Amino acid sequence: MDSVSQAALGAGISIAVMSRRTAVWKAAVAGAVAGTLPDLDVLIDFGDPIRNMVLHRAESHALFWLALFSLPLALLVARLTVGRAGSQAAGGITRAAPDWRRWWLAMALVLLTHPLLDAMTVYGTRLALPFSDHPFGVGSIFIIDPLYTLPLLVGVFWALAGRAGGAGHKANLAGLALSTAYLAWSFAAQQHVTAVARASLAAQGIAAERLLVTPTAFNTLLWRIVAVDGDRYHEGFRSLLDEAPRIGFDSFPRGTALAAELGGHDGLRRLAFFSKGFYKLDERDGQIRVSDLRMGQEPFYFFTFALAERASPPVPLAEPIRIGTRPDIDSGLPWLWRRALGEPLPPPR
Q1: Of 199, 205, 160, which Cα lies nearest the Cα of 24?
Q2: Are residues 139 and 61 part of one domain?
Q3: Tens digit of pLDDT for each residue in 186-220?
Q4: Same domain as 217, residue 263
C-alpha cells in the first residue's frame, strides 16, 4: 500500500496499544515512523530496474526479520519517549522499564501488519523469507484506495485532538475496525468476481491456465480480469453494478516466441517468476520489451522494460530500461468512474 496508508495504520495501531501509557502524539509519531520503515528498501539500488522492482518488499518485509527487529526498535522508542522526570532518574531507565514491553507489542504489530497489508495488493511481498522466496499477493485491493485510508486518518486525527481514554481513542479503534472490514469486503468482492469470470471464460471456451482478478485504481467496484491461455491472454472488466450476466473479453498475443529468442535472459526470468507468469513480450521501436500484466491495463502497463535490441539473434541491452506507461488521466479516469457505475463502455485502448 501507499506510504500514507502505512503511516496511518502504524499510528492507529500504536495509539490503540499504548492507550494511556504515553502521550497520544508520541504513540502516533512512533507508529507512523515504524509503519513506513519497511519501505525504505526503495532507496537501495539492486543493480538494474528489474532487480529494483522484484527485490522490493523482500527482506525488509519478511515477517521473521521484522519480528526480530521489533525488540530493539521498541527499546529505542521506549527510551526516546521517556519524559524529563524519567530521564533524571537513572538516565531514564526507571520510567522506560515498565513501558518497553507495551512498546514491544505496539512496534511488533506495526511492523508485522505493514507487509501483511502489502500482501493484500497484487504486487508481491516475500513474507516468508528466509524460508521461502514466494511473492505473496492476494490482489484484492489497489495500492491506493481512499476508502481504506480515510477511516484510519480520521481515527488518528480524532485521537490526537481528544483526551487519552476518551472519544478520541474510541474513534481510533473504530477507524481500525472499519479499514479492516473494508479489506474483508474487498476479498469477498474479489471471490464473487472470480466466480463470474470462471463461468464467463468457460461459456466462451477459454481454458485459462492462470486467472488474475484485481480491482482497478482507487476502488473495489470495478475489477480487471486477466486470463492466460497459452500464447494469448484475455482481458475483461466487471463492475459489481453490471447488469450483464457475463464478462466480455478482448484477446491479445503474449509474444511467447520472443522468449525463446531471448533464451535465459536474467531480467525476463526474474519478472516471469515475480509476476507468476502474468507477463507479455512484444517488439516496438526496434526493441524487445516485457510487461507485467498485473499492474495496468492494455496497452498501458506501469512495469514495462526494454530487454534487447532487435537483431538476429536479439542483442541484450547492458541493463533493462524501464519504459512503463499509464493511461491518460483525461480519458482514463472518466472511463473508470463511468464503467465502475455499470455503464457498458469499451476500455480505452
Answers
A1: 160
A2: yes
A3: 999 999 999 999 999 999 999 999 999 999 999 99
A4: yes
